[in-house]
Each structure stands twice: as structure tokens, then as C-alpha cells.
Amino acid sequence: MNHMPLRDDTASGVAETQPESEPRPDPAVLRLRAVHRAAAELKRGTPVLLLADAPLVVLPAETAGARGLREMAALAAGPAVLVLAQWRAAVVLQRPVLPDGPAVAWHLSPLLSDPAVLHSLADPTAAQILPEVPEPADCPADAPAALALTKLARLLPTVLVAPARPDAVERAGRIGLLTVPAGDVLDYPTAMAADLVRVAEARVPLDGAPDARIVAFRAPDAGIEHLAILVGHPEQAEAPLVRIHSECFTGDLLGSLRCDCGPQLRGAIQRMAKDGAGVLLYLAQEGRGIGLVNKLRAYTMQDRGLDTVDANRALGWGADERNFLIAATMLDELEIANVRLLTNNPDKVRALAACGVNVVQRERHVFAPNGINDHYLATKAERFGHLFG
């Protein structure tokens, strides 16, 4: 319940009690919080002001609507351009691109100001209604930060950007739009991963591993939670079994036959129980970091003939967008420095080693194809270098 300030009527006059001193904010937490909020605004179709040497107004093509376009125009000093991740541009233009090439920008014609057209340019699973190739434009210097913020929102990385008016910060405040520094956006994945802390722990007996515990981790911005499933007491082992497992709603929970995630999850826990101890790091990085909605879109593209790598790229994402510093930070918090990594993916070994974790051995973790995921497993071996032998 809210109360009015207490009053002290004295002979010298009426005086109100002084408010308690406000807590001093942690600048690092404020930076994380600003990025987190800005990503949430983009999901709602609300533009964000990206602060940089040349500030930009940013609005994702996927969520752009009439209101968002009007709000964007209120802050813009000039016409917007449409920026696409290079892989998505290659699909739309039907031409090859450099693997690590720059983003591609197009001028907006009246047609490209139509939200339905913008959405079709971002999403290859939507009806394609672009009648002609748009006119190319110079890509703004801070376009990578705009794309990065769009990806943090788990939106398709095709985004409208426009130069901001000199008074854009003031105008943004008046109409309730958020501002965020471009540098904080680019630093967010590392800062979020490095600042994870333990927030909860409970004993959760599992089928085949009755002595299991689950420890939850969260960044200071109170964002996405990641989980560690501890079997036995791995913190007491010299080099316990460890598996980095990215969440897979379709495979882990529903038993999808399109992947091998469910068998890998359950098989890892069973093997740890047999070994006496282990840690399964269950990371909130669905679809190799692109999110569940985009993974479903990628499945649609796979049904049209693409493999898992090219399906992700057709959406504008990289083949693997995961951040393994999250796993290293969790292991550090669990006081586990030496691991036997249960994986077929040599990139995980290299990523953990680069983060300071001593991988004393890679442990093979293979499950037979089921007749539906055969091509998926072959793609893992051929294009990701997974070791199934």
C-alpha cells in the first residue's frame, strides 16, 4: 500500500520527512538492462534509438507496422534503408556472398514501406511479394549493432535503419521510445555470459539418476535462465563428465525424430549416473542460438530441400549462433575446472578451452539414426565437422 509522506507540525513550521536515499545503481547492470529492454521493444514492433557516432533509428522488418513506421519517421532525419544480413541478401538476390562479408542495404521505395513486403523480405517462409530488385544503398557504419540487437530479440536479422534527428534523444523521451548505445549492444552477449550468477538450487531425482540436483543461473538483468543438472557430486571429481546441451523443445520434450537431441540428453544423464558424477549444462540457446520460432522456420526451409546450415542462412542467421562462454561461466561458478567433455562437436572443445576450461578428454556421444534424422546427422558430420566415428 502507498502512503503519503509523514508530516511533522512543529512550532517552527510544517516540515516533511526527507525521503530515504536512493540506492546507487550498478552501471554494468543498467547497461544490460537497457539492451534487454530495447530487444523487447523491437519484438513489439516499437523502434529504438541506437546511440553511436551517427545515431540510428532501428525497426525490424519482421515486426514493422504502421505505428512503428510512424514513430520511426518522427525520429528520423532522412529516409530509411533496409539492412539485411549477408546470407539473407544472397537468398533474396539469388547471388553468392562472401561468408564473412558485410551486411547489404537497400533504399526504400514506396513498395518497400509496406509492412507485408518488409515481412516477406525478412522471412523466406512468408509469401514472397517483391516484384523487382531494390536499389542498393550504402550500409550505415553501425548497421552491425542494429542487426545484433534484432538477433538478441530472436527476430529475423532484416532491419530498417534511418539517420536520427539532432534532437532524437529528446523526442524519443517525449514519445516513450528507448535509447541504447551501440557498443553496449555489441558487448551484451559477453557481458551477460560473464556475469551469470546462481539463483536457485533444488534436489530433483531423475529416472536413472535419483541423486540429481538442478542449479539455475541468471544474468543480473534478470533475463534468460540457464540450468545445470548435477548428477552425484561432480565438484568433488578430478575431471567429471560434462555435456553442453542446448535446449531443444521439439526433441527434448516432444520426442521429435528430426534431430538426436532427446536421445543425447537422456543418454548423457544415464551415462553420468553410471560414471558416478557429471554435469549437464542445459543452455537456453534453442536452434543453435536462433530461438524456437526461427528453428520452426528453418524446419520449413529444410522441408523445401535445404540442409540445416543453409536453412539457417536463408533466414539470415549464421550456421551456429551459440555463446559457449555461458557454459564456461557456469562451470566456474560450480568450481569445476577440469572436464571430460561428452560431445561429438570439436567446436565445443575449442570454445571451452578458449574460455579457460581444461578439457582433459573428449568423450564420444553417438546415437544411431532413426530413418528420419539421417540427413541431419550427415550434415552435422559433413558441414559442422562432428565426429561420429
UniProtKB/TrEMBL annotation:
GO terms for cellular component: cytosol. Its EC number is 3.5.4.25. Residues 1-26 are annotated as: Disordered. Pathway: Cofactor biosynthesis; riboflavin biosynthesis; 5-amino-6-(D-ribitylamino)uracil from GTP: step 1/4. Binds 1 zinc ion per subunit. Signal peptide: none annotated. Its cofactor is Zn(2+). One of its GO terms (molecular function) is zinc ion binding. Residues 1-10 have a biased composition (Basic and acidic residues). Gene3D superfamilies: GTP cyclohydrolase II. It catalyses: GTP + 4 H2O = 2,5-diamino-6-hydroxy-4-(5-phosphoribosylamino)-pyrimidine + formate + 2 phosphate + 3 H(+). One of its GO terms (biological process) is riboflavin biosynthetic process. Keywords: GTP-binding, Hydrolase, Metal-binding, Nucleotide-binding, Riboflavin biosynthesis, Zinc. Catalyzes the conversion of GTP to 2,5-diamino-6-ribosylamino-4(3H)-pyrimidinone 5'-phosphate (DARP), formate and pyrophosphate. This is GTP cyclohydrolase-2. It comes from Limobrevibacterium gyesilva. The lineage of its organism: Bacteria, Pseudomonadati, Pseudomonadota, Alphaproteobacteria, Acetobacterales.
